[in-house]
Design brief:
The complex is a heterotetramer of chains A (about 475), B (about 300), C (about 210) and D (about 650). By secondary structure, chain A is an all-alpha fold. Chain A has 18 helices and no strands. Chain A is globular, with a radius of gyration of 21 Å. Classes of the chains: A mainly alpha (about 475), B mainly alpha (about 300), C mainly alpha (about 210), D mainly alpha (about 650). The interface between B and D is large, with 81 and 82 residues.
Chain lengths: ~475, ~300, ~210, ~650
């Protein structure tokens, strides 16, 4: 029953926060709920329940392999959120806190969903919760970003609903009793009607791919990440994308059971490499460092699906990379948020020499850059190397070569922007934006912690996590 | 004991006979031009006089200005001592000595150029520039020649390498090496040792500012270098090693004389080539050596 | 009664074409609303005995799609007093042709797809595909925010149609899905309206291009 | 087990140094010197016949057991790391002090120790994963060292270029090591000649390591990085860091089964690097760029040796291959030593004059005699002239080449051109260094920059003297060094029997010593004679110029014009000349620029293509929502097509 806490605790906290009268103290609900959530998540990681407590919801191996990462990221963002919201005292934060908390609860639900419908509902609910978060700054730009997020994302969501229907119909047509839990669908396996399964796969891949931000459905991402506050960006890039990836994996398992695994893998491979390429091309001439982070996230979504397409070790590495991605992206977004605060601009034309104005955040930003570009000893290095290795091992030599070239281009782009921002002579525009901003420990520690976590994940991947990922792989590839 | 005596003899040969060659060349030139010309021993007189003269140093010159000629002279002498003298053989001969010889000449070049640039004079800089630049092409030719010899003999010891194979290869090599000799010793058509147009000179212009004992070292070193090259050339193309002691000595001397006379004739019959044609000449020499190499290669393979 | 259903679906498909052909914003909204109502009553037609749940869905759908959202949109339109013409990115004739082609294709494709015997006769699949295509076509081909919302509504209608295939077996999925999807629509419209009430921004998405590369 | 202690001690000390660098300069210096000394000691002990040290950790790093191994090959390079790392640290104390560089000095110290440590680890790691980690860490710390002076735009540009190129190489190594791991089934490194299927990987390694080694077409990053880095950093970059790439090549050419024609390709690349590197270096007018290109040349020489070694390996016959390989190894040391010496010298010139433009210097010998003589020493050494150490190693390589050619076998086809190339490169290098040394130190000061300068202090002088001493030692006692060379040879390829040292090595040493004595005697004699005859100073005669001015001197550009003209086809110099006109010409000027040909003619166009693609993609995303939906639908369609065709097949 503890699993339920993962959903209930944040939602209850959200409710309380909604009733809480004081803007000044309300933000403390975030770390509190985050702490509780993390405790439950990790206790469950250590002692996983034998069976899901309900056929529709359960802390199954897949959830176990993913959810703690999100919980960890949320915790750090929550601690960062307190000083951040204090800094933004001019904005009422009730809606923000409430939707941030409920987003956490719904993300947990989405991770644990073992039922097609529940999964879809939870995912869409997350989308809705993140709308006020995006709109927090309440500027015309924020409005435009939200609008695009809603319409592009909504279309994707609608398609994934259609896909769910198709999958349901596939099972119905295959003589299913309309039980849409993934276990039942996988059990039905080859009984599912193949054409409908394939249609469903395409629709669901594109639908949830839109949430993940795979190219060419990524278009909402730079706008949303560029306009949202740092912590929201971090949660979107590290949490929501993870939810969508989980969804894709669950569906993929069903498709695999239906005997179309090869086709599914091919589509995943193609869309993954395409996303990596597109992201790299965008990064090459990026100028706005928050949009740059969005494209980097697109790139990493591509890496994830590339890894997932390889199956076996590749999938394992993809789980590994999910964790690394959450941690490093979190660190990057938070430090970028600091820099954004201190510097009056967002593009390399307006900002430079931040290493003088915000030395700590700049150092963190650079460290995060090297982490996210797979430089050792940070985690992504290990996961990406493993993905490349498994690609070579599974006769995907050319794909791997292409992948490496994309990584190189992305590296060029990222370093170009980050060094332009961090080094050089500071512009006088800097500090014009928010004189109240100071590099206090409160805004430095969370990103530091995230980076250290990524370091730790890489150098000494805990045994329990490795087991969890292995279990998740074997859940998605049940050995006959 | 005998070792030391032999060594001293060789030393004497190199030190004493070297200044003879320029004298001979000048005689030949004078004879062709129908003049009486300076005495054959002129260079000896000059050296003696210079050795007694004082030195005028450029205000800019560093101690390297005097060290340069000294090192260059030592380098040439050492190279000469590595070269076997027909029946006398070499003072010292070991595997790879030929490479040492080539690089000792390079050392001499380095020091001459260094000394030339000490004075900060445009002329001498120009001379140094030409010296080191043409050396690039000459080096290619020399290395190819050495490669040819080593492929002929399958050895890397000068003594064994200078056992030439008669035939086309020898001829090609002879012409090639002769050209290199002219270039390395700055004779016509590459350079005109007794012109008065500094702009057209290489070696002579490099030593414009030298005087006194250092200048003596320079002149003597140049003479030794000339002798060295002619000895090398002769032994590279004439099968001297096969002859008995006296005959060999005679053949060597005759050969060297022939070479010197040839140099003299070239100087008196040819005009100095325009500078842009110099690389062409050197490349030709290089190509000749390459052909010799190919011949040697086939010969060895067969 | 299957005929009645098909009649309704045919009506909806006709409305698709109207939506593609109309050049005025109010009529577009009206079409969307009408289609919503038509769809809303379908469950009542499909279901043999009227369960409370089904009635609930029907009522909710009719109210939402047929009344609430259109009202919101009209209000937005009025408050922003934007000109009623929707200037198309894809002309009316081309979009009509495309829509028609899509409809035919949908019917053909639906015939070739494996269907359960009880669905063989119905136009549900074809209708839903046609509406989805129409919706996407409107989203791509019309530049006004409100017209895009209408396109989105029609897209949803298509999905709703498909959902009706499953209403026997997994009612909850269908209901939950649809209801939540409606909330998206509400959100979308809500955001616009809220935006308009604060500042009279243009609702022409061609002007909503500050965020660009 | 003492070795284990020594190693862990060195590593710990260096870590401590890296941490103490920012705040405690004195402690840092002590620690760094100790650590590098420990490295040197360990290396010499191993080379001196100590057993190879092999250690596996109980714990895992990155899910792999640590596996450190110090065999003779690693030790050979580790010794270099020790020497240059230590002397550079001492040099930096005066060259990059807190007083003048308050902002970057501390950083510089920290990264220096990190760099040294990481290079040591690269040499020690015997596990692909950890090798890669150490490799990248070393590359990054080098980046931070190069960009110490990051307020300068060109320094940042140079640093970025270095980082980009190095990362390209690293990704090549990603591919290499993961293919290796996929092939052999484990990250463990070691002799793997029993896996013939991994032979083609040599080409990947050649790219990955070649970038770092500054092999000719891949050298693009090298000149600007070496030129813009602080001089002690340039020294360790050029003296040691690029040798790491070489280490990789040597290491894996020894372990991997070699593909057909590996030796030929390496030999060809080496010859190209040697000649073109020398030509480029001759053409440069920036002192440090000249030195940098000369590194390309020397890498070429080493690669020639390696190539001959590989050919020897391929044709089973070992004698000449071994000689050339030995020469290559020895040249690794030699180049590391005198190139660091030269960069230190260049550093003290830069420190004194504040410019790298040779055409602004001249006549510095008077103010800085120590630097001048040490630089001259280095120039003679690097031009491979007897009686110094550069000649010893090149002599070995020549021996190998000549013997190989004398065999009249198929390999001669590759050997002969390589030999000629080596000779030409030597002559070009000589020209280049006559230019460098004389234009900077001799003649008259050309500008005010060269006018009032100061000699460097002892902290900078001592390392130079030390390096020169080591050079002299190798030059005069090569026989002593020989046994040290044999161990890495044996470790590199156990198939080779390496008991007999080539006899002439002793002779060569004697000859060089004799030469030194002769030179000393002659110099003294000439000097005394001239003094007794009387010396007087006068204006440069120069055929009777009354008032020669400094501007009449031959500049570096004019000195190199003739020879570099022959390489205009690759140098592509850009000249702008305004002739003096009229009786009293007001202005006439001549500007010459030597472009980075490969970078500007090859990489530039390539990147233009990529950037065009990038711009095109950006054009597709101009904020129009309908377009975005269209892309979504397009993606849907594409996936659909893919699935349909996929399921058909």
């Amino acid at each position: 029953m503890n699993e339920l806490l993962l959903i209930v605790v944040p939602l209850v906290a959200a409710g309380l926060a909604a009733l809480w009268p004081h803007d000044r103290t309300r933000p403390w609900f975030l770390p509190a709920a985050g702490l509780a959530h993390a405790l439950v998540a990790f206790s469950l990681l250590l002692r996983p329940p034998e069976a899901p407590f309900h056929p529709w919801l359960g802390y199954d191996p897949l959830a176990r392999a993913m959810l703690p990462a999100v919980s960890l990221l949320f915790l750090c963002c929550a601690f960062y959120g307190v000083p951040y919201l204090r800094l933004r005292a001019e904005r009422p934060n009730r809606v923000f806190v409430v939707s941030f908390l409920s987003a956490l609860g719904l993300m947990s639900a989405a991770h644990m969903a073992r039922h097609l419908g529940v999964l879809w509902i939870a995912t869409e609910a997350v989308t809705l919760c993140s709308v006020p978060l995006l709109h927090f700054n309440n500027t015309p730009r924020a409005f435009e970003a939200t609008w695009k997020y809603l319409l592009v994302g909504g279309t994707g969501i609608a398609l994934s609903l259609l896909g769910s229907f198709c999958l349901g119909y596939a099972s119905l047509h295959g003589g299913g009793a309309g039980d849409l839990t993934f276990t039942a669908l996988m059990a039905q396996g080859a009984g599912l009607s193949r054409p409908w399964v394939l249609i469903a796969w395409v629709l669901l891949l594109v639908g949830y791919g839109t949430k993940m931000g795979l190219a060419p459905m990524h278009t909402w991402k730079p706008d949303a990440y560029g306009e949202a506050p740092g912590i929201v960006g971090a949660m979107l890039a590290g949490g929501v994308t993870t939810v969508a990836f989980t969804a894709v994996l669950r569906v993929r398992a069903v498709v695999d059971a239906a005997g179309a695994g090869v086709v599914a893998n091919r589509t995943l491979l193609v869309i993954g490499l395409f996303s990596t390429l597109v992201a790299a091309l965008f990064l090459l001439s990026a100028r706005d460092f928050k949009r740059m982070l969005a494209y980097s996230s697109v790139e990493h979504m591509g890496i994830l699906s590339f890894g997932a397409a390889l199956g076996g070790v590749g999938l394992w590495a993809a789980f590994f990379h999910v964790w690394n991605n959450s941690m490093t992206k979190g660190a990057l977004f938070l430090s970028a948020g600091n820099i954004r605060r201190a510097a009056g601009g967002r593009t390399i034309d307006e900002v430079s020499g931040m290493s003088v104005i915000t030395p700590r955040s700049s150092a963190l930003f650079v460290a995060g850059l090297f982490a996210v570009t797979a430089c050792p000893p940070f985690g992504p290095f290990f996961s990406e190397l493993l993905i490349v290795k498994s690609a070579f091992a599974t006769e995907h030599g050319w794909a791997a070569a292409f992948f490496l070239v994309c990584l190189l281009l992305a590296f060029f782009g990222l370093t170009r922007v980050v060094f332009a921002i961090v080094y050089g002579r500071p512009r006088n525009a800097a500090r014009a934006m928010d004189p109240r901003f100071r590099e206090t420990l409160a805004v430095i520690v969370p990103p530091v912690v995230l980076l250290l976590l990524s370091l730790w994940l890489g150098l000494a991947t805990p045994k329990v996590l490795r087991e969890a990922w292995t279990a998740a792989v074997s859940q998605l590839y049940p050995k006959p | 004991m005998t070792l030391i005596r032999e060594f001293l003899v060789r030393l004497a040969v190199w030190l004493l006979l070297a200044p003879l060659l320029p004298g001979i060349i000048n005689k030949v030139k004078a004879w062709v031009a129908g003049r009486r010309g300076p005495p054959v021993l002129q260079l000896y007189y000059d050296l003696a006089r210079l050795w007694r003269k004082g030195v005028v140093l450029s205000t800019l010159a560093s101690p390297g200005f005097i060290a340069g000629p000294a090192v260059a002279w030592v380098a040439v002498l050492a190279a000469a001592l590595l070269l076997p003298l027909g029946p006398l053989g070499a003072a010292l001969s070991f595997r790879g000595d030929v490479i040492l010889l080539v690089y000792l000449l390079a050392l001499a070049r380095f020091c001459t150029a260094w000394a030339a640039l000490e004075t900060g004079s445009a002329f001498e800089g120009m001379g140094a520039a030409r010296e080191v630049s043409y050396a690039v092409l000459a080096e290619a030719a020399v290395i190819t020649a050495v490669l040819t010899l080593s492929m002929q003999s399958g050895s890397l010891v000068l003594r064994a390498m200078l056992a030439p194979a008669a035939g086309t290869g020898a001829v090609l090599l002879a012409v090639g090496l002769f050209t290199v000799l002219l270039a390395e010793n700055c004779r016509v058509p590459f350079d005109d040792p007794n012109t008065h147009l500094e702009l057209t000179m290489i070696h002579e212009v490099m030593v414009l500012d030298h005087s006194g004992p250092p200048f003596a070292a320079v002149l003597h070193g140049a003479a030794m270098k000339l002798l060295l090259f002619s000895v090398l050339l002769v032994q590279a193309v004439l099968p001297i090693g096969k002859l008995s002691g006296i005959a060999a000595g005679g053949a060597l001397i005759a050969g060297v004389l022939m070479v010197t006379v040839a140099v003299g004739l070239v100087e008196s019959l040819m005009a100095r080539a325009a500078f842009r044609r110099v690389p062409l000449l050197l490349t030709t020499a290089f190509l000749l050596c390459v052909f010799a190499l190919l011949v040697a290669w086939k010969g060895g393979a067969a | 009664m299957n005929d009645l259903l098909n009649l309704l679906i045919g009506l909806a498909m006709g409305l698709n074409l109207v939506a593609l052909g109309t050049s005025r914003l109010p009529s577009l909204i009206r079409v969307a609303a009408l289609q919503g109502m038509v769809l809303g009553i379908m469950p009542l037609v499909i279901e043999h005995e009227l369960r409370v749940m089904v009635v609930l869905i029907a009522v909710a759908t009719v109210i939402m799609k047929g009344i609430v959202i259109p009202a919101l949109l009209r209000r937005a339109m009025r408050t922003a007093n934007i000109d009623r013409d929707l200037n198309p990115l894809i002309g009316f004739v081309p979009s009509l042709l495309l829509g028609a082609a899509g409809m035919i294709g949908a019917v053909v494709l639906a015939r070739r797809l494996p269907l359960l015997p009880e669905h063989r006769e119905s136009l549900l699949v074809a209708g839903s595909m046609a509406s989805v295509l129409t919706g996407l076509l409107l989203l791509i081909g019309r530049s006004k925010a409100i017209s895009q919302v209408c396109g989105y509504l029609i897209l949803e209608n298509g999905i709703y149609l498909f959902g009706l295939l499953l209403i026997h077996s997994t009612p909850l999925l269908v209901e939950g899905g649809i209801l939540l999807d409606l909330t998206v629509a509400v959100f979308v419209t809500g955001i616009i309206v809220d935006r308009i009430q604060r500042a009279f921004d243009s609702l022409d998405t061609r002007k909503l291009t500050v965020l660009r590369e | 087990m003492t070795m284990g202690w020594l190693m862990s001690f060195a590593i710990l000390v260096l870590v401590a140094a890296a941490l103490s660098g920012a705040r405690l300069p004195r402690l840092w210096l002590a620690l760094t010197v100790t650590g590098t000394a420990a490295f040197l000691g360990a290396a010499l002990w191993t080379l001196g016949g100590g057993a190879a040290w092999d250690w596996r950790s109980g714990f895992a790093v990155g899910n792999e057991r640590l596996h450190l191994r110090l065999d003779a090959v690693s030790a050979w390079f580790l010794a270099l790391v020790g020497v240059v790392g230590g002397s550079g640290a001492i040099y930096a104390r005066e060259y990059w002090p807190d007083g003048e560089r308050p902002e970057s000095a501390g950083r510089g110290r920290g990264w220096w120790s990190t760099l040294v440590l990481c290079m040591g680890l690269v040499l020690l790691c015997a596990n692909g994963l950890h090798f890669l980690m150490a490799w990248e860490a070393f590359a990054l710390s080098a980046y931070f060292l190069i960009t110490l002076e990051r307020e300068r735009r060109e320094t940042r540009a140079a640093g970025w270029l270095y980082l980009a190129a190095s990362h390209a190489g690293t990704l090549g190594l990603f591919a290499f090591f993961s293919l290796l791991a996929a092939g052999t089934g484990s990250w463990e490194l070691g002799p793997m000649r029993d896996h013939p299927e991994v032979a083609p990987l040599f080409w990947v390694a050649l790219f990955g390591f070649g970038v770092k080694a500054g092999m000719f077409p891949l050298h693009i990053w090298l000149p600007s990085a070496h030129a813009n880095a602080p001089s002690h950093v340039s020294a360790i970059m050029s003296g040691v860091a690029i040798k790491m790439g070489l280490y990789g090549l040597i290491r894996f050419s020894g372990w991997l089964p070699l593909p057909e024609g590996a030796g030929w390709v390496v030999l060809g690349l080496g010859a190209a690097s040697a000649v073109l590197g020398a030509a480029f270096s001759l053409a440069q007018n920036d002192l440090k760029r000249l030195l940098a290109y000369c590194s390309v040349e020397n890498m070429g020489i080493i690669l020639i040796g390696l190539g001959v070694g590989l050919l020897g390996l391929a044709s089973g016959d070992t004698a000449w291959g071994r000689l050339a390989m030995a020469g290559a190894l020895l040249h690794v040391w030699n180049h590391g030593l005198f190139k660091s010496l030269l960069f230190f010298g260049a550093g003290s010139v830069l420190h004194a004059t504040g410019t790298r433009e040779m055409s602004r210097m001249g006549g510095l010998w008077r103010a800085m005699p120590w630097t001048a003589s040490l630089f001259a020493f280095g120039s003679v050494a690097i031009s491979a002239l007897p009686p110094l150490n550069g000649f010893v190693s090149e002599w070995l390589i020549y021996l190998g080449l000549f013997d190989a050619a004398a065999g009249h076998t198929q390999v001669a086809v590759a050997i002969v051109p390589a030999t000629i190339a080596l000779g030409v490169a030597g002559a070009l290098a000589l020209a280049a260094f006559v230019k460098a040394a004389t234009v900077v130190f001799l003649g008259a000061a050309r500008t005010q920059a060269g006018a009032h300068v100061h000699e460097c202090g002892w902290w900078m002088r001592a390392p130079m003297i030390g390096l020169a001493a080591v050079c002299a030692f190798i030059a005069l006692a090569p026989g002593v060094v020989w046994p040290f060379i044999q161990r890495p040879l044996a470790a590199w390829n156990p198939a080779w029997s390496v008991d007999d040292p080539p006899a002439p090595f002793a002779t060569l040493g004697a000859v060089q010593a004799a030469l030194v004595i002769l030179i000393a005697v002659m110099v003294v004699a000439l000097w005394l004679r001239s003094r007794t005859n009387g010396m007087r100073r006068a204006l440069t005669w120069d055929c009777g110029y009354a008032a020669p001015t400094a501007r009449m001197q031959y500049t570096g550009g004019s000195f190199a014009a003739l020879a570099s003209g022959w390489f205009a086809w690759v140098l592509r110099p850009e000249r702008r000349l305004r002739w003096p006109r009229g009786p009293f010409p007001r202005h006439a000027d001549f500007v010459e620029r030597i472009p980075e040909t490969v970078l500007e003619r090859v990489i530039g166009p390539l990147s233009d293509v990529v950037m065009t693609a990038s711009a095109w993609v950006r054009q597709r995303q101009q904020g129009h929502l309908p377009d975005y939906i269209l892309y979504l639908v397009a993606g849907l369609a594409a996936m659909g097509v893919l699935v349909v065709f996929g399921s058909m097949r």
